[in-house]
Design the sequence.
């Protein structure tokens, strides 16, 4: 029986491996992500230009120990953000773009229940972003040590109409204002503050307080707020209607609205007005306060101070 030469077989195998390497995604990182500023390029100090044309993507501009970057973004799109350590503020504006301002966070938080020290290097942080068909993903790179992960504070301007889904913060405060759509957030350790929001909200806070203002509540909306260790304050307009389920086993539930139940109580199921969307509030170790926003700027400001 004649022996078959192994060389043609090896050549075919090598060609197949070469082809697979060419077709394979970049093995050094997930495809589609870009880092700003580019790795290895530390921008010089300076101030960004104040007037930038809308709808353009300029290169990242330095701002002290941080940078500013702008990405085209259609109203109604989806934005997700992941930040391990550092505060995040998301503000709505009337533009078809997202502006990302990231800074190296200093030791700013003084709350006793936070064990995180934000001291350390003030180098310009690096942020990874990925544009998708539905919107934009923003995250801090995975920390590979040694030492503590760097803390990065974010300030994002987004279109007023936006779906903020998959917003996750391990340790830091989250502030959201002047947007409508959908809000799905998780804060492990830190406070959540939401103002001038309209739409559906699903929020989970580990250790921290949640103060949420929802305007123009409609039948298709849904409000679910959970806090493991902290208080919940939900602010609704005086004419709002909802079906409320509130549970504070180690605290109490109080309300400016008549829920048809005697308050304060640890568990309440009731209606506001003629009913409406479901409102579910759970504070495992804290209190729940449902606050009526009175008409007029002065009254609204007074309600904020409660």
Sequence:
């Amino acid at each position: 029986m004649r022996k078959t030469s192994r060389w043609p077989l090896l050549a075919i195998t090598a060609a197949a491996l070469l082809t697979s390497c060419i077709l394979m995604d970049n093995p050094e990182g997930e495809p589609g992500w870009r880092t700003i500023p580019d790795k290895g390029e530390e921008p010089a100090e300076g101030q960004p230009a104040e007037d930038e044309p809308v709808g353009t993507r300029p290169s990242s501009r330095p701002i002290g120990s941080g940078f500013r970057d702008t990405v085209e973004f259609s109203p109604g799109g989806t934005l997700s953000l992941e930040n391990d350590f550092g505060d995040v503020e998301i503000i709505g504006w009337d533009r078809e773009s997202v502006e990302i301002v990231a800074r190296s966070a200093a030791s700013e938080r003084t709350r006793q229940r936070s064990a995180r020290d934000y001291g350390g290097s003030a180098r310009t942080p690096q942020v990874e972003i990925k544009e998708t068909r539905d919107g934009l993903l923003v995250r801090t790179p995975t920390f590979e040590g040694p030492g503590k992960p760097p803390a990065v504070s974010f300030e994002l301007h987004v279109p007023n109409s936006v779906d903020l889904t998959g917003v996750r913060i391990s340790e830091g405060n989250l502030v959201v204002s002047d947007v409508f759509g959908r809000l799905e957030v998780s804060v492990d350790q830190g406070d959540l503050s939401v103002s001038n929001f309209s739409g559906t909200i699903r929020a989970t806070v580990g250790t921290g307080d949640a103060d949420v203002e929802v305007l123009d509540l409609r039948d298709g909306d849904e409000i679910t707020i959970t806090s493991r260790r902290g208080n919940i304050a939900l602010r609704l307009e005086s004419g709002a209607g909802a079906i409320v389920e509130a549970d504070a086993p180690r605290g109490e539930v109080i309300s400016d609205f008549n829920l048809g139940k005697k308050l304060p109580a640890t568990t309440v199921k009731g209606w506001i007005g003629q009913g409406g969307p479901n409102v579910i509030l759970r504070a495992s170790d804290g209190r729940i306060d449902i606050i009526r926003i009175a008409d007029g700027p002065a009254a609204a400001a007074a309600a904020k101070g409660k």
In short: The two ends are 94 Å apart (CA to CA).
